[in-house]
What does this fold into?
Amino acid sequence: MNPTSYPAAETVRHPTVAERRSRLAQMCGWVMPQRTTLAASVACALALGITSIGFAQNPTIIKRSIDFSPNPPSYSVTDNVPAPSRYSARDSAYPSDSAYPSDSAYPSDSAYSSDSAYQENRSVSVRRPSLDESTEPLIEDQRERLFDELAEEFSMFDRLGNLVRRVSTLVKPSVIHIEAHKTEKNESYDEAGAGVVLRINNETWVMTNRHVIVSASPKQILLRTSDGREFHPVKVLSDPSTDVAVMKVNGIDLPAARLGDSDSTEIGDFVIAIGSPFGLSHSVTFGILSAKGRRDLSLGEQRIDLQDFFQTDAAINPGNSGGPLLNLRGEVVALNTAIASSSGGSEGIGFAIPMNMAIKVADQLVRNGQLRRGYLGVTLDPDFSAADLAAAGYQEKGGALVKNVRPGSPAELAHLQRGDIIVEFDGNPVENDDHLVARVGLTPIGSKIPMIIYRDGKRYRTAVTLTDMR
It folds into this structure.
């Protein structure tokens, strides 16, 4: 290399504008008052000159070539500081900011015209702070920012958790733990379940599932409140076609639960289940509504004719039966009834009777002592589906195909025929045959119900008056 010329390329990456300016000022503020070589002084002066145009941008990489010629430009001298014969920065500890002179105190290169290091053609190095030194504060700042973001996001979940706690505390006094002593096939055993307090006809009743208390007399049924009070029902009524039962209690001050509209409950809504899984009374679980309209379920030896179940992933185990399924308003939207499980415990698939359906049954049990099921008088095709409708060119998403009409039935009086497709009943779309069976069974006797049917590709309106199923 030519001894009289020192081209040097300097590449520096500066994470932020403030850090760039601070580091250059620190280095140059220390180098120049220490009687450095002319080369170091020129490098710092040029570097500081770059800042006026380079610091306005986002973090960049600056590459500047500096030519140390034998005839450097002249600078004005503000301090008479003799130059040392050599400078090499090897210490890792830089002086504090208070040790740095102001910008106007920097000497010009005319004060170093006789610099020995320059005359001896020696190289000049300036030590920069290591990456570890510069990144430690940055990492800590990032961690603090992430913690702040987590705290902000957690606050939303914390509000949800607080809501679940408030709903549980509010509704627990309306949930009853049930223990039924049963005797079947010369074998005695106890079965645990749950119930929910309701006001029906200005009387206090406890609603539960029929399979929880069936085969047990009122004296064999023990009811326990959340505060430990125990009592027996004075009357028990149940319906096997829906698995709904109600028990009348007297002389006990119990707060009634608030009922919600199960028809307006949507898939994905948050729900809370309260019950007595494995005998552990007043246990609370949390989940979402997974599906609606689950029908034609095989529930062990018990046959439930009228099915229209909700499905939930809130943990439901043996002992949860009869307990309420709540929305986050604290309203009962369903009655926990069954699970689908290969192990006997919760596997995230539980079923509950919609409260709009259960309360209709309970109301008839209290008023009539039994459920008076509506009767239409048709036989439906269980294999007919929405795909058959589409294949026939209909735009409807569901319906029920009539295979046979019983003589003298309400369906015959309404002029229904074999091959008719019932697509609407009482103003509600019909999804399939099981859906229509459930709707008809829960319709009040003597009501005149409008229907829409398809016959031979044409759409017709008719009306039917249901009778009591005999």
Observations:
- The two ends are 114 Å apart (CA to CA).
